[in-house]
Structures are given as structure tokens and as C-alpha cells.
Design goal:
Blueprint (H helix, E strand, L loop, with lengths): L15 H7 L2 H27 L3 H20 L8 E4 L19 E4 L7 E5 L4 E4 L5 H8 L4 E3 L10 H6 L7 H4 L6 E7 L5 E4 L6 H6 L9 E11 L3 E10 L2 H12 L15 E8 L2 E10 L1 H4 L17 H6 L1 H4 L2 E6 H5 L9 H5 L6 H7 L7 H6 L3 H10 L1 E8 L3 H11 L5 E9 L13 H4 L8 E11 L2 H4 L6 H14 L14 H7 L3 H9 L9 H5 L6 H10 L10
Parallel strand pairs: 1-2
Antiparallel strand pairs: 3-4, 4-8, 5-8, 6-7, 6-8, 9-11, 9-12, 10-11, 10-14, 13-15, 14-15
Membrane topology: Single-pass membrane protein
Protein name: Delta(24)-sterol reductase
InterPro entries: Diminuto-like, FAD-bd_PCMH, FAD-bd_PCMH-like_sf, FAD-bd_PCMH_sub2, Oxid_FAD_bind_N
Length: 563
């Protein structure tokens, strides 16, 4: 057996959950899709209503809502009430991680009204938004102005708060970094009810750098100021097929985003957008895009593809056609390009509705897509949820660019999941060491894609049922995730916390750096008010006693001490 061949596994005996999952599409079509469409429509009407308000009126409502949160925090009795959590239902989160921490007694604070765009400042090129503003909402407002957030995560439902406190990426992250790297100011309500504005150069600069990846455990985010960039009406997208082994596919991907001469900051050599999809161990399609004007897109002979229409082929399948017809170029309306993966949830839609990619479904019911992830989670019981944890993979592996080939080979051996999504991002060298940070000394290696101020990383997105599961063989999902996490720790990689994690506390802080985070927890009074980030991400139920004991012991934990 070659190094890349998956091990032979015994057949797995089917149980009742297998059949329920197999026919779950019935519930999705007749329950989840209609309700999802209704929610999307009502949310859209709410966004339109908000857009019609003046910025002054929105700011007034914002100030009133902030006062309500401050007053609510002051009502908490630390000796009697549980730790502070938002009042959002556990299934609402887009991520696959179970929000089990809300099963312990907790003190709820309602942030549901914080869903307005507060200002679009064209002079400062800043959008000031509340945390529940999602990507579909902000792009609908900014793109007609020929403006955009520097990093627009692909799925419409992803919110500003989730992308800041957690993790956010897009095909422009090889220029601008992760979503949180494009934020210039945070407005945070601290444990004592103070409202502070944190920037990289004011008195709260330590808090500014600690907030990303903290999962809302340092304070309550109520607004953020985010960088805007000028954009054009279309994306000129080139689809380039790559054939070879996994290391050769990885090198083709690296060459599509990183000039071999090291001229990484030259816009003539580096495209505006990059992503690659690995369809098999020997086939991939690299896509690189540049903004283009309406006049250029509509020139004779150019192909315009409005991928946002409900009847269009799913984007990942459309891109796959390059493997047969060779390299080609087309122009996609900018906003439709941003949200190209929304309708099919990358390729997860194929598992949820196996026939939803067929032409007859797309034309007749495609306008109902996609199902809301929150409703999919709300309509599954404990048994189905555990089934997906064991028989399904939704993970992102953030790895140094030069290790992408090794990561692909690891995924093939251990999980055998295809397609795989590759998206590059910069990991900046900052004045302080944050939870995620580049490899020490990377700037002296001058590897392809790196600069003196940032190391190039890649998100290796692994989303689908593993090959052994599709073949009816045994597969231990929890053990596979544990091995993945160990591989990431050994290779200076990171696991976004929206996903199901098997990390124990010691390994969690081997993967992430605790020094600045714990410093801010103590300095700003988060200990005893907000749950620690590890216990918020930890898999399984959390009892109130367990959480409180962990809070009391955190100062004595050797692997959480400052370096």
C-alpha cells in the first residue's frame, strides 16, 4: 500500500440513525426550506426597513440598546447568578460546534437588536456596524456604492460578531489577512458595564489585539469599525485546471498566489482573489480573480456568468468543468461572486439534499435554497447530532503555505474527504503575541508567499462525509479529529473554534497562545463573569460546578501562564 492509500477498514453495520439521515431530505424539503425562505424574506424586509432609517436614528437606537445591556449586566449578582452568556438560542450559531455551555446555569444578556449598519464613512473608508450584521446585508449596501469590506466571508448568514470573535476568511485574505485583521476599532462592554473603544494605538490596545478568537469571553461586542476598499462591478475570474499528485496540486495552488521572485506586494503579479478546489488526489482547479469594470465585462466576446440565479449550476460543480474543457475566463457580478458558495453551502448541500444540484430541482425549487444552518441544527436530535460528529467532517486546518502539500496528504490518508477548499491568508507579525501567530523567524526564511511583516497561511477546508463513511466502512470521527489537532500542533497550525474540537485544555493552549488573552481576562474583570474560551469551545456538556472550578483554578494553570 502506498503512502497515500487509505487503510482498508471493516464494514460498518447500519443502525436506525443511518436510515433517518438518508431520508432526512423529506424534512428538509417540506419543513426546513419553506421556513428558511420565510425567515430570509422577513430578515430582508427588516434590513430594508433599517436601511431607510437615517444614520442618526440608527445611532440613537444603538445608544439605547447599549444602555439596556449595561443595565442588564448591573443586575447580575455574581454570588448567585451564573456566568454571562448571550440570550441567543444554542442552535442559531452557524458553526457545527455544540453550544453546550448554555446548558449550565447562566445569566442571559439579549443582543438581538444589534443588527444595524450604523455608518458608511466614504472619507475614512470605514463601515461601522453592529455585531449581528451579516455578510449578505453589508454587501447588499456597499457593493452598489462600489465599496466593500476588505474581506467578505462567502456565506450570507455569517455575522460580523462571529467573524471577529471567532474566525473569518475569504479569497482576498492573502492581501488583507483574516476578517479580524481588517477591523480598526471595537466597541466593547466590559464585565463591569463600562463601554470602551479599543484600537491598536489607544489605552485599550491590549484588548484590541486580544479580542479576535476570544469567542466573546472578554466582553460583549456592540459595534465594530471595519476597513472598506474600492471595488468594481465585476470579477474577472480565471479557472485553471491542475493535474498531478497532491504535492504538485499544492505547488500549482502556491504558484497561483505567490510570485516565485518574492514580489508578493506587487498588484500586477498577485490577483485580488484566490481559491482552489481539490476534487480528487490528482485533480484541482485554481481560480484567481481581478476586479473589472462594467465596460470591460460587456466588451464583445467576454462571457458574463450571473452565478447568483437560483437555476444556475452550483459553483463548485461549474468550476469543476475546467477539468474537461481546460482553462477559461468569465466575468461574474461582484456581489454574486462574493456569495458564490451560499446556495449550496460549499458542497454540503449535496449531502443534505442529494438531488438538489439536478437541473429539474434547481429550476423548480432552487429559489428556496439554501436551508438555514440554524434550522438544520434545530431539527436534529441528540442522536443525529452525534452521528454527524462521528460520520461527518467540517473542519478548517490553518497551516503555513509551504506545508499545504503535507496537509493534503494527511487529509487523504486519515479522512479521504473531497472536494477540499484551499484559501490563503496572511498571518501578520504583530507588536504583541496573540492567540494565533506566525512561526518564529519566518521572516528570515523568505519562503514563497511570505514577506517581512506577514507569513502566508492557507485554510485547508475539509467539509463532507469521509470516503470510508460513503463506502459503508467503519470510521471514528472523534479519533480522526484528535489526530488532526495533534498534526496541527506539531506543524504550527490552528483549528478555528466554530468546529467540533477534541482538544483537552493542555493541548488547546499548546495550539493557541494564552499570554495576552489571560492578561486581558484578569485586567478587564472577565474572570468570574465570562466563561473562558477553552470551556466555551470544549466539546460536551458543561456543568456549572465544572465551569466555576475552572475559573477559580485558571491562575494556577501552568500552560496558561504568560511566556
Amino acid at each position: 500500500m502506498s503512502d497515500l492509500e487509505a487503510p482498508l477498514r471493516p464494514k460498518r453495520k447500519k443502525v436506525w440513525v443511518d436510515y433517518f439521515v438518508q431520508f432526512r431530505w423529506i424534512i428538509v424539503i417540506f419543513v426546513v426550506l419553506p421556513i428558511s425562505f420565510t425567515i430570509y424574506f422577513l430578515t430582508y424586509l427588516g434590513d430594508i426597513k433599517s436601511d431607510r432609517k437615517s444614520f442618526k436614528q440608527r445611532q440613537k437606537e444603538h445608544d439605547e440598546n447599549v444602555k439596556k445591556v449595561v443595565n442588564r449586566l448591573k443586575q447580575r449578582n455574581p454570588s448567585k447568578d451564573g456566568l454571562v452568556c448571550t440570550a441567543r438560542k444554542p442552535y442559531i450559531a452557524v458553526g457545527m460546534r455544540n453550544v453546550d455551555y448554555k446548558r449550565a446555569r447562566h445569566f442571559e444578556v439579549d443582543l438581538s437588536e444589534f443588527r444595524n449598519i450604523l455608518d458608511i464613512d466614504k472619507e475614512r473608508m470605514i463601515a461601522r456596524v453592529e455585531p449581528l450584521v451579516n455578510m449578505g446585508q453589508i454587501s447588499r449596501v456597499t457593493v452598489p456604492m462600489n465599496l466593500s469590506l476588505a474581506v467578505v466571508a462567502e456565506l450570507d448568514d455569517l455575522t460580523v460578531g462571529g467573524l471577529i470573535n471567532g474566525y473569518g476568511i475569504e479569497g482576498s485574505a492573502h492581501i488583507y489577512g483574516l476578517f479580524s485583521d481588517t477591523v480598526v476599532a471595537y466597541e466593547i462592554i466590559l464585565a463591569d458595564g463600562r463601554l470602551v473603544r479599543a484600537t491598536k494605538d489607544n489605552e485599550y490596545s491590549d484588548l484590541f489585539y486580544a479580542i479576535p478568537w476570544s469567542q466573546g469571553t472578554l466582553g460583549l461586542l456592540v459595534a465594530a469599525e471595519i476597513k472598506l476598499i474600492p471595488v468594481k462591478e465585476y470579477m474577472r475570474l480565471t479557472y485553471k485546471p491542475v493535474i498531478g499528485n497532491l504535492q504538485e496540486l499544492a505547488q500549482g495552488y502556491v504558484d497561483s498566489l505567490a510570485p516565485r521572485d518574492g514580489d508578493q506586494d506587487n498588484p500586477e503579479k498577485v490577483p485580488d482573489f484566490i481559491e482552489t478546489m481539490i476534487y480528487s488526489p490528482t485533480e484541482a482547479v485554481c481560480m484567481f480573480g481581478r476586479y473589472a469594470s462594467k465596460e470591460e465585462a460587456k466588451k464583445k466576446g467576454n462571457v458574463i456568468n450571473s452565478v447568483g440565479w437560483w437555476f444556475k449550476p452550483w459553483f463548485y460543480q461549474h468550476a469543476q468543468t475546467a477539468l474537461k474543457k481546460g482553462e477559461f475566463v468569465e466575468y461574474i457580478p461582484t456581489r454574486e461572486y462574493y456569495h458564490r458558495h451560499t446556495r449550496c453551502l460549499y458542497w454540503e448541500g449535496k449531502l443534505i439534499l442529494p438531488f438538489a444540484d439536478q437541473w429539474w430541482f434547481r429550476w423548480t425549487l432552487g429559489w428556496l435554497m439554501p436551508p438555514k444552518v440554524s434550522l438544520l441544527k434545530a431539527t436534529q436530535g441528540e442522536a443525529i447530532r452525534n452521528y454527524y460528529h462521528d460520520m461527518h467532517v467540517i473542519q478548517d486546518m490553518l497551516v503555513p503555505l509551504y506545508k499545504v502539500g503535507d496537509a493534503l496528504e494527511w487529509v487523504h490518508r486519515e479522512m479521504e474527504v473531497y472536494p477540499i477548499w484551499l484559501c490563503p491568508h496572511r498571518l501578520f507579525k504583530l507588536p504583541v503575541k496573540t492567540m494565533v501567530y506566525p512561526e518564529p523567524g519566518f521572516e528570515h526564511q523568505r519562503r514563497q508567499g511570505d514577506t517581512e511583516y506577514a507569513q502566508m497561511y492557507t485554510d485547508v477546508g475539509v467539509y463532507y462525509a469521509p470516503g470510508p463513511v460513503l463506502r459503508g466502512e467503519e470510521f471514528d470521527g472523534a479519533e480522526a479529529v484528535r489526530r488532526m489537532e495533534n498534526w496541527l500542533i506539531e506543524n504550527h497550525g490552528f483549528q478555528p473554534q466554530y468546529a467540533v474540537s477534541e482538544l483537552n485544555e493542555k493541548n488547546f493552549w499548546r495550539m493557541f497562545d494564552a499570554s495576552l488573552y489571560e492578561h486581558c481576562r484578569r485586567k478587564y474583570g472577565a474572570v468570574g463573569t465570562f466563561m473562558s474560551v477553552y470551556y466555551k469551545c470544549k466539546k460536551g456538556r458543561k456543568t456549572e460546578k465544572e465551569v466555576q472550578e475552572a475559573e477559580q483554578a485558571h491562575l494556577e494553570t501552568p500552560y496558561a501562564e504568560a511566556d
